[in-house]
Amino acid sequence: MQLVVARIGRAHGIKGEVTVEVRTDEPELRLGPGAVLTTDPASVGPLTIETGRVHSGRLLLRFEGVRDRNGAEALRNTLLIADVDPDERPEDEDEYYDHQLIDLDVVTKDGEEVGRITEISHLPTQDLFVVERPDGSEVYVPFVEEIVTEIDLEEQRAVIDPPPGLIDDRAETASARDAAEDERGAAGDEA
Known about the structure:
mainly beta; 6-stranded antiparallel beta barrel; 6-stranded mixed beta sheet; 12 strands; about 15% helix; about 40% strand; elongated
């Protein structure tokens, strides 16, 4: 199985280094020296990582055979793709690769069918499951422990405990004004 692990950004300096936008939780495993990666577009690769380092919070890579800024700039926007065993799991037992989660059935803890995961959206603060409902609509489920209570790869399902309003329109709204109106109404009933 092939997974996109990075996208090459602009050239850095004059010796062939490039910035990369990392798209893997395991850059030390996928983007280390000696790693051979296929590319999109295919005509650019395969590329072998010669060196890597972090500079000002960004990963910089240099590839074998790329020695100057022009060669580095020619790689801009190229996707780096790693070959991964489909049965491989991340080291942490509570982590999953996107391909393991796509197409899982999503059900509530009470067994109510919600839909099927069609995409994982990686946001800066958290990941979201994009879940296609049986009627074709979509719902977004934050991939956080409080909501996603179980991932069962053998049963091909994700169990969720959604707060009110996440997967339906029965959100509970409460405000200080509503509470005050309720109190006034109750006081008026007593008079």
